[in-house]
Write a structure and sequence with these properties.
- It contains 15 helices and 22 strands.
- By secondary structure, it is of the alpha+beta class.
- It has a domain at 267-473: Dipeptide-binding Protein, domain 3 (Roll), CATH 3.10.105.
- Strand 5 and strand 6 form a beta hairpin.
- Helix 8 (294-301) runs antiparallel to helix 10, helix 12 runs antiparallel to helix 14 and helix 14 (433-444) runs antiparallel to helix 15 (448-464).
Length: 504
């Protein structure tokens, strides 16, 4: 059978294998410093939602699969997999000889324990809804079979990411995951220390199954603003910067640095609590839809560095941006919807982070100005990222401007938000029987055309009801000093290619 990578537009019930690249060791001392505005906020990969936490723990833990360049799925801890003919079970063949950082051996029992922990509602796992079709797990040596209640083609895509990291079953049993417990993964770097507000230190895992990293260590240093990150790169004290501000990206000098940018899967959205006034009124939400000039947002807030988006950013299933009720700003239509609501004075507060993404406040201020043109007042509740994340997770907002991470498959992107049993539905505040039915259809079909139809219907329902206002997809920016080689920026935002990075 031909061995291949899994393309995002061709999910099917088939055998797929993959391998992470190996690389020779580097003799000279290789210590790399990454500059990040955000600090991590926890050490439990299954509950991580903060982008900084996801990036850092993604270097410490491995999943069964991973998404690499060109948004292709490759085998990670699983070297191959095969669905049964009905698509209701998938058997994964695991790599042999993989060690956790504490020296213990990885095998099928760790996979079983990790997935069961994700499915346990007590965990509060971010990816629980994505794996909810799993009804039983058979583990034997280096073979794991996931049995599912329905055919589930995107289950492989659902196994990617730090939220589905494979943990030691011994650690799970002993309650040694998260909290103050030292992370114990199988990834290319070992966790050394975390000084909150200061830095996270990692050391190379010489026993990494993909080959020992060329770097000896990685320090993720918290730096207050992105201008300072760029200055530190120019000064040589930082070698790689995580950048979100296009203004800073435009200031990168090719003489001292390199800029990598890739269209992100992440997206900006003005998210609504559909259950509280005044946003529980569909006409008010539609008025907001028609009042927004998305191109103007991109031009002013992102300096033209982005594109208008609908709900689904997954490349093979991307939403049409012309299918929403008002594809372009239509102030007259906005006023009609507002009149239909019977409300003369519409005011609401939007939660905004001042430290999460450099463009958030500017975008929120632009939105505030646009909505004012039709008599809608959007007051801004600006908080730091440490305050924002728990409030967002709790659904503690009337509206919020969010930058959410996208996924290569719509099922793993939105099942957790917009199904009636989704574990993040309290954030989305909207579900319906038709959405549930279309998500089930998209999940259970291995036919790309059928799946596209299901996700087109989902996108239409979300936008026709103005559940959220999807605004724009930005770029992922990574700035490196000219001494850095082998690093590739990924659309997922992951830093996993640091395993092949080295300093010249």
């Amino acid at each position: 059978m031909k061995i291949k990578k899994l393309a995002i537009g061709a999910l099917s019930f088939a055998l797929i294998t993959g391998a992470v690249a190996t690389h020779p060791a580097q003799a000279a001392s290789q210590d790399l410093v990454v500059g990040s505005v955000l600090d991590i906020d926890k050490l439990d990969p299954h509950t991580a939602t903060n982008f900084a936490t996801v990036r850092a723990l993604g270097l410490v833990y491995s999943g069964l699969v991973e998404v690499g360049a060109q948004n292709k799925i490759w085998g990670a801890l699983a070297k191959s997999w095969r669905f049964n003919s009905a698509g209701t079970s998938v058997t994964l063949n695991l790599r042999s000889g993989v060690k956790f950082h504490d020296g213990s051996t990885f095998d099928a029992k760790d996979v079983k324990a990790s997935i069961e922990r994700i499915l346990d509602t007590k965990t509060g796992a971010a990816a629980r809804a994505n794996l909810a079709t799993i009804t039983s797990i058979q583990a034997n040596g280096l073979s794991v079979t996931l049995n599912m209640s329905v055919p589930n083609a995107p289950i492989i895509a659902a196994l990617d990411g730090v939220n589905v990291a494979m943990l030691s079953s011994d650690d799970i049993e002993a309650g040694k995951v998260g909290g103050s417990n030292k992370p114990n993964g199988t990834g290319p770097f070992k966790f050394v220390s975390w000084e909150p507000g200061q830095s996270v230190k990692l050391a190379a895992n010489g026993s990494y199954y993909g080959g020992a990293p060329k770097l000896d260590s990685v320090t993720i240093r918290v730096i207050p603003n992105e201008a300072s990150i760029l200055s530190a790169i120019n000064a040589g004290t930082v070698q790689l910067g995580v950048i979100t501000d296009p203004l800073i990206a435009k200031q990168v000098s090719s003489k001292t640095s390199r800029l990598q940018k890739v269209p992100a899967l992440a997206y900006y959205a003005l998210q609504f609590n559909n259950k509280v006034a005044p946003l529980n009124d569909k006409n008010v939400r539609l008025a907001i839809t028609c009042a927004i000039d998305r191109q103007e947002l991109i031009k002013t807030s992102l300096l033209g560095e982005g594109s208008v988006t609908g709900p689904i950013t997954s490349p093979a299933y991307k939403s049409s941006v012309t299918a929403r009720p008002c594809p372009k700003q239509d102030l007259a239509k906005a006023k009609e919807y507002l009149a239909a609501s019977g409300k003369k004075d519409v005011t609401f507060k939007a939660l905004v982070t001042s430290t999460g993404w450099a463009t958030s406040v500017a975008m929120a201020q632009n939105l505030k100005s646009q909505l004012a043109k039709v008599g809608i007042t959007m007051d801004l509740d600006i908080v730091d990222q440490a305050t924002y994340v728990p409030r967002w997770l709790a659904g503690d907002f009337v509206a919020t401007l969010a930058n959410n991470g996208g996924r290569i498959d719509p099922d793993t992107m939105y099942t957790r938000y917009f199904t009636s049993t989704g574990n993040l539905n309290k954030v989305a505040t909207y579900s319906s029987s038709t959405l549930d039915a279309n998500f089930l259809l998209g999940k259970s079909s291995g036919n790309t055309t059928v799946r596209k139809g299901a996700y087109t219907a989902i996108s239409k329902e979300l936008e026709d009801n103005a559940v959220w206002e999807w605004l724009a997809t930005p770029y992922e920016y990574r700035v490196t000093s000219r001494s850095v080689s082998g690093f590739t920026a990924l659309a997922t935002g992951s830093l996993i290619t640091l395993r092949s990075t080295y300093l010249k």
